[in-house]
Specification:
By secondary structure, the protein is an alpha/beta fold. The chain has 13 helices and seven strands. The chain folds into two domains: about 20-180, Rossmann fold, CATH 3.40.50; about 190-325, no CATH class. Strands 2-1-3-4-5-6-7 form a seven-stranded mixed sheet.
């Protein structure tokens, strides 16, 4: 070997033959961000479809100069197709694309639904497409910040065995970390994420509203450190991180909470009671809640469920069934 031979720089990733043309069907919050991330990895977005004004604005911001065309035209132009539509719309979209002959053999067809695996793409697979399910476990804003947030984001990945390497490569190129999910486990996987993330937003929004009603001028500033610490503790320690009046068995405090919520924010009572009972069960099972305190606490929660006087809220004057968990 000649030691004086010139050393060559590694090729630019954009020059690798594996670079793909990318199309997006459904310019919601997810699709343009993923396509923008793939562009940073050297792939080339060539077409996007979107109907609403908001979709068109997102596409213009995240994928400038990429033409807006009908879905069938997206498939005609691209080798890698991102199907980023709502879960309930996905099966009909796949059937429609196959029915019109838009799907070509050898195309990578990727959907981002958490609910579905690759079986929902079976009609396209029979037409020769290569099916992948890549679900980013992240909330999206529809802005450029989403591209940055993909760094280190876990993706729930389902793919045929022969496409696992391709799926892994795409996720890594977008900055994410692949987590393999079996086809039959997709609904449970998605339910777990919704329970943790979607419901968290509701709980935080309700908490902020109640703090404002209590006279707190900056509820976000008050909650930020508290919720950050609670999340960190929960991720590190699970149920051992439980604290507060329910885990301690402070039945009187919980009863006062329920009374105040009924007075000032009755729409929050059902959620408070449901979460309090679940918290009590977990605290009791893990030895955090003393059994002698649990009886009084669960009694308060049962009284809270029926309004505290034995009457079912569904028979009350206000007719709100939502107060019953």
């Amino acid at each position: 070997m000649n030691a004086s031979a010139p050393q060559h720089e590694p090729p630019d990733p954009r020059d690798r033959p594996a670079r793909l043309t990318v199309g997006v069907v459904g310019a919601g919050r997810v699709g343009p961000a993923l396509a923008a991330a793939l562009r940073l990895a050297g792939h080339r977005p060539v077409a996007v479809s979107g109907v609403s004004d908001a979709s068109r604005r997102r596409a213009a911001e995240l994928l400038p100069d990429v033409p807006l065309v009908p879905p069938a035209e997206v498939l005609a132009r691209a080798e890698l197709i991102l199907l980023t539509v709502p879960d309930d719309a996905l099966p009909a979209l796949v059937e429609g694309l196959v029915g019109t002959g838009a799907v070509r053999p050898g195309q990578l067809l990727v959907h981002t639904s958490g609910r579905y695996g690759t079986a929902v793409l079976d009609p396209a697979t029979r037409a020769g497409a290569l099916p992948l399910a890549l679900h980013p476990a992240m909330t999206f804003t529809g802005t450029a910040v989403d591209v940055q947030r993909l760094a280190g984001c876990s993706f729930g990945v389902t793919a045929p065995e022969e496409l696992r390497l391709a799926a892994e490569a795409l996720v890594i190129e977008m900055g994410g970390e692949p987590e393999w999910i079996a086809e039959q486990a997709r609904p449970l996987y998605h339910a777990a994420l919704a329970l943790g993330a979607n419901h968290l937003v509701t709980l935080v929004a309700q908490s902020m509203e109640l703090l404002r009603a209590a006279g707190v001028a900056a509820p976000d500033r008050m909650l930020g450190p508290l919720l950050g610490a609670a999340l960190d503790n929960a991720l590190r320690s699970g149920d051992a991180a439980l604290t507060g009046p329910v885990a301690r068995g402070d039945a009187g405090t919980v009863a006062a909470h329920v009374a105040e919520l009924r007075k000032h924010a009755p729409g929050t009572v059902a959620g408070y009671l449901a979460m309090a009972r679940t918290t009590a069960d977990r605290a009791l099972a893990h030895g955090l809640l003393k059994p002698e305190l649990a009886e009084d606490l669960l009694g308060v929660l049962a009284d809270g469920r029926d309004g505290g006087d034995g009457r079912d809220d569904r028979d009350g004057d206000d007719g709100r069934e939502g107060d019953r968990p």
